[in-house]
Amino acid sequence: MAQVMMKDLNKKYDEVHAVKDVNLHIRDKEFVVLVGPSGCGKSTTLRMVAGLEEITGGEITIGDRIVNDLPPKDRDIAMVFQNYALYPHMTVYDNMAFGLKMRKFPKPEIAKRVQEAAEILGIQELLKRKPRQLSGGQRQRVAVGRAIVRHPQVFLFDEPLSNLDAKLRVQMRVELKRLHDRLETTAIYVTHDQVEAMTLGDRVVVMKDGWIQQVGEPLELYSKPANRFVAGFIGSPAMNFMEVAVAEANGALWLDTTGLRVKVPAPLAGRLGAYKGQRITLGIRPEDLHMATSNDPADYSFDAIVEVVEPLGSEILLDVKVGQSVIVARVDPTVRAKLNDKLRLALHPERVRIFDNKTELAI
Amino acid sequence: MVIERRWKKWVFFYIPLTVFVVGTLFPFYWMTVTAIRPDAELYRSWRAVNNAPFWTLHPTFEHFRDLLAKTTFPRWLLNTFYIAVASTAISLLCGLLAGYALARLRFPMAGALGTSIFVTYLVPPTLLFIPLADIIRDFQLGNTPWALILTYPTFLIPFCTWLLMGYFKTIPKELEECARIDGATRVGAMTRIIFPIAVPGILSAGIFAFTLSWNEFIYALIFLSSPERKTVPVGVVSELIRGDIYFWGQLMAGALLGSIPVALVYSFFVEYYVTGLTGSVKG
């Protein structure tokens, strides 16, 4: 059990500055997910914690030890890799026992721990097999088992579910969550899948181009994204963005673009005063749009033309054209919409996000 | 349709394959037949009525007896074996370490070093033997097995290094990283995880190196002079061709006996050998 601290962490390869000034405090027993598009530095960060990459600048502390110069074997961590990295010439049992053997554990203790881990993961009957005789899901379980027998201070996961098919991925995701609740070990998990990040993480770290964009609990990231990138990255389908002008009329502020004119909701109006006459980016999540009814005030509704209808069963995604831009709306499955239908959509004024055009930060 | 397909299979598969197999095996057959043919048949005119060049009616082991009794052939066999094993072992050890380093470690000039090792392999032995002879003389190694044990690696090490480097690159590096996190040092991960997985690659490099040094001719011809120190390829040629007289029977008997160890080595390891060259590791 240990906390992990990263202080001003930097990684430079010859030309590339992969990780920039990362500061992160991962608390004991916490499950933290690093998420971001490929090349954002999340894997490099994890590999620096593991000791597989040298640290160019900054400091990493695991527990109360600075580990910058410790080799991986002395950091008391365990890692699960995307391609499982099972030793092909060893049986499942030997794979799981390898770390304990290297640490000179007595044989009965090794047998006990492997048995225990195998039970937790439901792989007791696979112990004598070789990795090539296992399915993808089974291999993943063995890889997780190999990590948990060691009782390490920190678990590191590097996209462990990316090689599994969609159904198995959901199932393993649930199992990993249950496992973490049971073992209560600090875990750092890297993924590019925002759904995995949201469902697994106690806290989620969003990264891009080597910078941390935002750190927060999953729902906090969803409801209060710090900038346009986080807003677009978290949530599926992604948030709609439209460039609008801030205009004053009839004593109120309005967001204005071709085909759309909505009143600035009261809580936002104060913060937007300085932007009068400028252009900003308006962000609306697809689920914050609905078919306008007579109860919806005219100030928060607008006309749209249907371009694509995607019925998903539990909901319908409508790609609609508003003025010049195309946005996605997530509506009730009862809505009957056809191509080129003209309909009226309304938005939840208090859930609208706005971003500075230059800094892309949330206003 | 079926008939047409069968016809195609014959034309594009069986017939070319047969031609290839016959073409490959015929020299060995010729070697065998010549080795067991009595001298009377060997030196008979082509136009003689009872000439039968492709088989013999009076097989004999006379040539083998002569070879073993009148020449130091068993001694040559032993020399060749000793030299081949020793130079293979040296080359394999160096090749393993160099191949691993070039495939895995990041260090300045790694690429240039890899290429230059390969380039040394391209220098033909017929050019290299002149400076090498000088070195051998300086170290006073001439006419000793060490002259060959130490010169064969000049072409075996580049070869082993490149073959093994290619093989190591097919092994996912996560295996090693995982071992290092699991508690192994870099050397531990190399010997406990990577080398066992690379066994097919190591075996095929070893077999190749062994065959190359077993069959090597030019260095052996130049660096060894006394008859009892020679290797099989050189001994057979230099002792069984006297002036313009070819002792065909003994020559072929020697060649046949000399190729048996290599054939045995191949037949034992053929499966490893194929996976070693095609390189496939699945986690």
Structure description:
The complex is a heterodimer of chains A (363) and B (283). Chain A is an alpha+beta fold and 363 residues long. Chain A is 25% helix and 34% strand. Chain A is built from 9 helices and 20 strands. Chain A has helices spanning 42-50, 92-102, 107-121, 136-148, 166-183, 194-200, 218-223, 228-233, 266-272, and strands spanning 4-12, 17-26, 31-35, 57-62, 65-66, 77-80, 154-158, 186-191, 203-208, 211-216, 240-249, 252-257, 260-263, 279-284, 289-291, 301-311, 316-322, 325-331, 342-347, 353-356. Chain A has a 6-stranded mixed beta sheet, sandwiched between helices. In chain A, strands 13-12-11-14-20 form a 5-stranded antiparallel beta sheet. In chain A, helix 5 (166-183) links the parallel strand 7 (154-158) and strand 8. The longest helix of chain A is centred in the middle third of the chain and has 18 residues, at 166-183. The relative contact order of chain A is 0.11. In chain B, a hairpin with a 2-residue loop joins strand 1 (241-242) and strand 2 (245-246). Chain B is 76% helix and 1% strand. The mean pLDDT of chain B is 88. Chain B has 2 domains: 2-60, no CATH class; 71-282, Orthogonal Bundle (MetI-like fold), CATH 1.10.3720. Chain B is an all-alpha fold and 283 residues long. Chain A binds chain B through residues 50-52, 71-73, 75, 77-79, 81-89, 98-99, 102-103, 131-132, 139, 146, 150, and chain B through 172, 174-175, 177-185, 188, 193, 196-197, 281-283.
Please sum up the structure shown.
The complex is a heterodimer of chains A (363) and B (283). In chain A, 25% of the residues lie in helices and 34% in strands. Chain A is built from nine helices and 20 strands.
